[in-house]
Hints:
By secondary structure, the protein is of the alpha+beta class. Helix content is 37%, strand content 17%. The protein is built from 16 helices and 14 strands. Helix 7 (296-313) crosses helix 8 and helix 9 runs parallel beside helix 12.
Amino acid sequence: MEAGKGLGRPAVAISGEVERLDGRTLSYDEFVERYLMPNRPVVLTGLMDDWRAAADWLSPDGRGPNLHFFADHFGKSVVQVADCSTKEFTDQKRQEMTVAEFISYWLKLSLEKGRSVLCNDESKPLLYLKDWHFNKEYPDYVAYTTPPFFTDDWLNLYLDSHLIHRDSDIHRDKNEANCADYRFVYMGPKGTWTPLHADVFRSYSWSGNVCGRKHWFFLPPSQCQLVFDRYLRSSVYSIYDDVSEKKFPGFRKTIWLECIQEQNEIVFVPSGWYHQVHNLEDTISINHNWFNAYNLSWVWNLLLRDYNVAKEYIEDIRDICDNFEGLCQRNLAANTGMNFYDFMIFITRYTLGNIVQLFHLKHVEGSLNSSVTRSNLFIANLISVRSVATKMKFAEAFTEENINSCSEENLNAFSDIQKIMHEREFQDLSSALRMTYECINTKLKEGSLTEITRDSETDSAFFDFITSLGSKIHGPGDLVGLIDRVLEKTNCSNCNINIPCDAEPFVV
């Protein structure tokens, strides 16, 4: 298989290629069973043909990027650009520039005859536009439609209506961790690349090539500890580096998968997989990070790990700190992008959103049994949240003392159920959740969900139902109790639903 031109082969063992199949032949259930639950990668074809981006963003020959189109239509946007030839800390050095400035650089680069454009060529900057929040910036320009396999996206649905941080000590309008969403456009000339990494929050991700070709290398979670040094403080930057066996004694033992991603193909990246990506041609891609019931435990496990690191780092000032736990949580939010209280608010609102859907299925159709597939999706979500919340009960942040001392913004955002229900942002999330599962059910060929009509009788019945379950959530234990009462009322003991707490390690 062709590697990045001029790079040769990386000094790691490649066991085989990632599976490739036509996404149009795959049902949603099959995707869940074959890829989401076992947490394994796949390349999907046939899902991008109707994208507007697949027409507007291509040159007349249909292969390369239409760079002038970007300069003319989106040139004023300010974006992050990485210099692939310059390492800064654990990533590539970044700068801000306008899209027009980046396109000007790219056009000039393409005119240079005979220049060798390699990821290890440090003679000139090699720039790669990354993490452009295109979807948020141009909502009326519908560049693509998210394939149904990836629409159960709790992260981005939440960020469409909520801030990721409530605490005024953390939230800043320009705080990168408090970003608008995790939907991105990437653009770069041949030779640009992304260093070895695992995705934010240990989320899933998907990446669709509008044009160009990419070379992907994948390392499964069962081996990911081998990319770190013996102290777990630093990790391998690139699989093409001359990696020190003394510093990284296990790295030479790693076994990888690889694939070449062609134009109009989508790569699904599972949770916790380390990967490195090289552009073999001028490339534009659309990328999402996302998580849901199937990998929610990965998010909590990462938060807990990063919290323990942050806590250990400042443990020596515990006795002189007025609010040691609050400082730990602020540091966690800064370093990881979310802290325990942010996550508690997140799963509380998804719990209530799924309860809303179950209630309306029963109220509108008269029985959950008549919509088994639909109701099971919501019940499965609740089971997943319950599993994670059960683990969260033992975290120091959720002791009574620390709960009582957390910010009022955080406490109010997850404690008062009826107040949450009346918030516009929660109603928007609940509506988005319903529409998402309409899409999924269509893919399941069961038909769309029954339209939910709001009226005073329905609202009154629902609030009576919620009040009967409880009115306050004072921590993960209360959330577990609420879910248990809902599952009891829905006779979930009769449901055959299996949501894994942690995906089994994939063996190459």
